[in-house]
Amino acid sequence: MTHLDERSTIQAAMRAAFPKAEERVARFYHMQEYHLGWRAESLAPSSSDPGKLLRPRLCLLACRAAGGEPHRALPLAAGIQLIHDFSLIHDDIEDNSETRRGRRTVWAIWGLPQGINTGDGMFVVAHLALHRLSEQGVPADVTLEILRRFDQTILRICEGQFLDLSYEGDLSISEADYLAMISRKTAALIAASSGLGALVGGASAATAQALFDFGLHLGLAFQIEDDVLGVWGDPTVTGKPFAADLYRRKLSLPVISGLRNAARREELARLYTQDNPDDDAVRAMLAILDEAGARGYAEGIAAHHHTQALAALDSVTDGNREALAQLRSIAEGLVGRKS
């Protein structure tokens, strides 16, 4: 299956999870489909870039790596992507973000109440997707275990969002605090993608745990790479403004490192408490972070978790070698990425 075919197959499984709706509530589902890129702002059918689809791709490959048929994991892959998108709808509301992937967000178009309800609806559609596992021949006890772990993962994501919101403006948070937050908000779902995919594929307990560990460390590395791009990424490649996270005063790992270790950490703290920092303030922040070696430090932590992810993958000795090689290729492609 080519990468393009894989993306089309994943999106078809996502579409299959949506119920047939009568006309008076069709718009409710169309708003969800707008967020997924399947409709324009007018709610007419359209198409836009759905993003990397990293999580469902990991799910299908992990199923195959465990010796299973990837098509059996398609409902799980669909549910994982839908739950990720549910979280983004609510994140946009909580972060007051009016754009995502170059388009207006759901709440910015239709208001906060409809935005909340649209996210709630996608939360349920994600669960409906998982209930289709039985149609693919997944045993009932395995389906029930996956549903349990899926809900545990969602709760972890909500914990991560709680910590993220709680840490806003708190310059005293430690690196350990930050890693605890991203292990929930970002890494938990990536870990579930590979670990639960392995369970659908019939993995042994050891293989399933190894693929959970692979996803966890990959998720940590992925988020820390995002932190680096949020400060030093090239706008022509990332599609985001230069040093966007500094303008937003986001407490990412490079900034936390700078606040602890920079020679001019008091100045950095003062600049970070300013409302709406201007270009001069952001340039000063960048200079302090560069002097402190914050970029290299963050990249080193990302590299450590990348190494841990590959070590977990290498511990799988009873899997499909081609699928394991593809998982490795995805992992290696995420380190040092430009967007």
How would you explain this protein's 3D organization?
- 43% of the residues are buried.
- Helices cover 70% and strands 1% of the residues.
- It is built from 17 helices and two strands.
- It is mostly helical and 339 residues long.
- The model has no long low-confidence stretch (mean pLDDT 95).
- Helix 2 crosses helix 6.
Write out key terms for the chains shown.
mainly alpha, two-stranded antiparallel sheet, globular
Q: Could you give the topology of this structure?
A:
Elements: H1 3-16, H2 23-35, H3 54-65, H4 74-94, E1 99-100, E2 103-104, H5 106-110, H6 112-130, H7 140-167, H8 175-185, H9 187-200, H10 205-232, H11 235-238, H12 244-247, H13 253-261, H14 265-272, H15 279-291, H16 294-314, H17 321-334
What is the gist of this entry?
By secondary structure, the chain is mostly helical. It has helices spanning 3-16, 23-35, 54-65, 74-94, 106-110, 112-130, 140-167, 175-185, 187-200, 205-232, 235-238, 244-247, 253-261, 265-272, 279-291, 294-314, 321-334; strands at 99-100, 103-104. Helix 7 (140-167) runs antiparallel to helix 9 and helix 10 (205-232) packs antiparallel against helix 16.
Separation, N- and C-terminal Cα atoms: 25 Å
What fraction, in percent, of the residue positions are helical?
Answer: over 70%
Biggest sheet, spatial arrangement of strands: 1-2
Label the structural class: mainly alpha
Overall shape: it is globular
State the low-pLDDT regions, or none.
none
In total, how many beta strands?
A: 2
Relative strand content: under 5%
Order of helices and strands: HHHHEEHHHHHHHHHHHHH
Radius of gyration: 20 Å
Biggest beta sheet attributes: 2 strands, antiparallel
Instruction: Return the average pLDDT rounded to an integer.
Output: 95
> How many distinct helices?
17
